[in-house]
């Protein structure tokens, strides 16, 4: 059962963090039947359709391949520059498609000339977009080293020549006696290799030679020279080509349909979306900003007793009952930065030599104890939905004075049950109250070691006879170390009146 539950959680997490790509694939699948056979996207080799899918994926998830700038340097950001970089990544697969078609029609100069003119136009537009967005991602340090023009020129020429070459070889081998709709890419997978070149082009188009010079000049922490990691580039390019070729091979091996034509175009679209989720995974936050809202119950409308008191078994009207679903917030808000325990902080994990000493982020301690968004117990994946507080050895949760008079009391009210929790065990406060599941109420005492909080939980803290209630709101994630360092940690006087 644990194995099945682990698989279920992994699937749920994968769907949740990739909802944008899943929605894109559903949209592409829905648009596919509306494309007529004479449309250029419906070409028999599916190269235009595959490049269109990659452009859409690049718009949602595209980012640079490689290790980027030195981690201790602050990057410039601008909305206009970000959109210019996004436009360059979206147009790159389209430009490479025209260069690929130019290679396919090199034996017909008129057709090749028209395609080359279109490819050049798209390439110039991409260059203009990169020039307009040059401030996006720029850093201050510019050490000497390999020239930007040489690196950029070599990379652009190599990618264009690769597209032309696979298109030309595809044209030469297309005349062979081969049933292409059934055995696609068996002799020479030109349209498949184009996908790998396009993945590589999208990942490199917004890179900077300055970032490479920074890492080369800084070196590594152990004193050894920096050597760029080539695996991400080969994984994005060759891995995508081999994966799509294997998908086509399985389709031919099991004889699924009479051939892979545009009627089955949802297959390469699904592969492009899935591979993009692997090459460009969503970022895991290093911490999450939470808010504690001071709340008040919605009751308090008891009628004044005129003559005789009501009997004890009669429930009062409008009594001060705390229902997590019926509370009223006040203006007092307390910030709380909670780290994600399983996240990898790029600044700390990067082996590059630091340029100067840096202040660490604030400790994740709270008045309640040591707080973290701990990894899922089964999948070991990072999550930021369930906040865990370790109370073992803490004296702030409860305490006593002489005479066994309790001075502190802490109760957590949860608005909803979590998946897998039972509703069979019910409790209630008074005989006239409605019963609630036992799992939605947790009384914290000196024996409590772990406290789990979710979005919407109400923390009731009573100190020296004064009770205060706080509703937990799990807010926006924090991805950069700079944001975490400047965060104000919670203070004791925020939660206890002195």
How would you describe this protein?
With 498 residues, the protein is an alpha+beta fold. It has 2 domains: 19-279, no CATH class; 287-301 and 313-494, no CATH class. The protein is 38% helix and 14% strand. The protein contains 12 helices and 12 strands. The protein has helices at residues 2-17, 19-31, 47-61, 79-104, 109-132, 148-173, 190-204, 209-218, 231-253, 266-279, 346-349, 481-485; strands at 287-297, 327-339, 370-372, 387-390, 399-400, 406-413, 426-427, 436-437, 441-444, 450-453, 458-463, 466-478. Mean pLDDT is 82; it is low at 178-183 and 396-406.
Tell me the layout of helices and strands:
Elements (H helix, E strand, L loop, with lengths): L1 H16 L1 H13 L15 H15 L17 H26 L4 H24 L15 H26 L16 H15 L4 H10 L12 H23 L12 H14 L7 E11 L29 E13 L6 H4 L20 E3 L14 E4 L8 E2 L5 E8 L12 E2 L8 E2 L3 E4 L5 E4 L4 E6 L2 E13 L2 H5 L13
Antiparallel strand pairs: 1-2, 1-12, 3-4, 4-10, 5-6, 6-9, 6-11, 7-8, 11-12
Poorly predicted residue ranges: 178-183, 396-406
Gap between N and C termini, in Å?
A: 50 Å
Category by helix and strand content = alpha+beta
Helix content: 25-40%
Summarize the helix and strand pattern as letters: HHHHHHHHHHEEHEEEEEEEEEEH
Instruction: Evaluate the radius of gyration.
Output: 30 Å
Rounded mean pLDDT score: 82
Report the strand count. 12
Total DSSP helices: 12
Domain module count: 2
Largest sheet: 7 strands, antiparallel
Morphology call: elongated
Strand content: 5-15%
């Amino acid at each position: 059962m644990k194995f099945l539950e682990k698989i279920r959680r992994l699937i749920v997490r994968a769907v949740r963090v990739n909802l944008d790509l899943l929605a894109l694939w559903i949209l592409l699948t829905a648009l596919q039947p509306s494309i007529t056979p004479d449309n250029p996207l419906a070409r028999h080799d599916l190269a235009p359709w595959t490049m269109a899918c990659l452009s859409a994926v690049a718009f949602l998830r595209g980012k640079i391949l490689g290790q980027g700038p030195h981690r201790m340097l602050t990057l410039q950001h601008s909305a206009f520059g970000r959109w210019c970089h996004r436009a360059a990544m979206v147009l790159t697969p389209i430009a490479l498609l025209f260069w690929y078609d130019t290679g396919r029609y090199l034996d017909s100069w008129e057709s090749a000339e028209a395609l080359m003119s279109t490819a050049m136009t798209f390439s110039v537009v991409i260059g203009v977009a990169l020039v307009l967005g040059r401030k996006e991602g720029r850093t201050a340090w510019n050490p000497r080293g390999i020239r930007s023009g040489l690196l950029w020129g070599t990379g652009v020429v190599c990618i264009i020549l690769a597209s032309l070459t696979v298109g030309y070889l595809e044209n030469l081998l297309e005349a062979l006696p081969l049933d292409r709709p059934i055995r696609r890419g068996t002799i020479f997978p030109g349209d498949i290799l184009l996908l790998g070149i396009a993945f590589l082009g999208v990942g490199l188009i917004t890179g900077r030679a300055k970032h490479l010079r920074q890492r080369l000049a800084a070196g590594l922490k152990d004193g050894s020279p920096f050597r760029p990691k080539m695996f991400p580039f080969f994984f994005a390019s060759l891995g995508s080509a081999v994966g799509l070729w294997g998908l086509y091979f399985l389709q031919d091996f099991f004889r699924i349909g009479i051939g892979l034509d545009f009627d089955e175009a949802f297959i390469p679209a699904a592969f492009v979306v899935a591979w993009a989720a692997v090459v460009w995974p969503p970022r895991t936050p290093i911490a999450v900003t939470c808010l504690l809202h001071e709340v008040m119950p919605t009751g308090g409308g008891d009628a004044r007793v005129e003559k005789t008191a009501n009997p004890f078994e009669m429930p009062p009207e409008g009594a001060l009952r705390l229902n997590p679903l019926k509370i009223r917030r006040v203006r007092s808000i307390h910030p709380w930065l909670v780290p994600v325990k399983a996240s990898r902080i790029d600044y700390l994990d990067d082996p590059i030599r630091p340029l100067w000493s840096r202040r660490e982020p604030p400790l994740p301690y709270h008045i309640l104890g040591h707080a973290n968004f701990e990894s899922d117990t089964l999948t070991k994946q990072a999550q930021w939905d369930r906040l865990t507080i370790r109370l073992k050895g803490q004296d702030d949760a409860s305490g006593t004075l002489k005479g066994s008079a309790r001075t502190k009391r802490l109760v957590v009210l949860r608005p909803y049950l979590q998946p897998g929790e039972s509703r069979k065990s019910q409790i209630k406060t008074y005989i006239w109250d409605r019963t609630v599941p036992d799992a939605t109420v947790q009384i914290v005492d000196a024996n409590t070691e772990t406290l789990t909080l979710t979005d919407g939980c109400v923390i009731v803290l009573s100190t020296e006879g004064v009770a205060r209630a706080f509703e937990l709101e799990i807010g926006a994630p924090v991805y950069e170390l700079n944001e975490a360092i400047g965060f104000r940690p919670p203070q004791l006087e925020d939660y206890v009146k002195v």
